[in-house]
């Protein structure tokens, strides 16, 4: 069962943010950075919902939350058209492989389609091969690759 989140879900949602970094991270990122990055968006969407965001919760069995998807609204860089964007998707440890991620992605797609969006996007870390395999199976298509280069900057002289 997939349902909209309610304020009483906050503890569950916040507790599950640690799963957003449950893969081999690049050395310049920490689990805390990744969990905290979506925390503010999550709380904002939960406590001040608008038509531009949604949090959908998967329950299995009914009454037992086991996953969530946080969806926001973005503007396409090239066309300037509005589209849905998956900010975060997480499933409880031990609940993987049961189709919950797929159900949450489909629910997000339905939310976007009902609004009239022509596309939905998401970002995934290259190292998150488990998530990328799900996206590939569900016919999501990679579009751009975000490159990063750390710069060692010399300390300023006094």
How would you sum up this structure, described in words?
This protein has helices spanning 10-16, 31-47, 100-115, 129-137; strands at 2-4, 54-59, 65-75, 82-91, 120-122. The chain is of the alpha+beta class and 158 residues long. The protein has one domain: Aminopeptidase (3-Layer(aba) Sandwich), CATH 3.40.630. The protein starts with a strand and ends in a 21-residue tail after the last helix. The relative contact order is 0.15.
Biggest sheet strand line-up = 1-2-3-4-5
User: What name does the CATH topology carry?
Assistant: Aminopeptidase
Uncertain ranges:
none
Please provide the ordered H/E string of secondary-structure elements: EHHEEEHEH
For the record, what CATH class applies?
Alpha Beta
Going by CATH, what is the homologous superfamily? Gcn5-related N-acetyltransferase (GNAT)
Strand content: 15-25%
Please outline what is shown here.
The chain has 158 residues and is α+β, with helices and mostly antiparallel strands. Helix content is 31%, strand content 21%. The chain has a single domain (2-137), classed as 3-Layer(aba) Sandwich (Aminopeptidase), CATH 3.40.630.30.
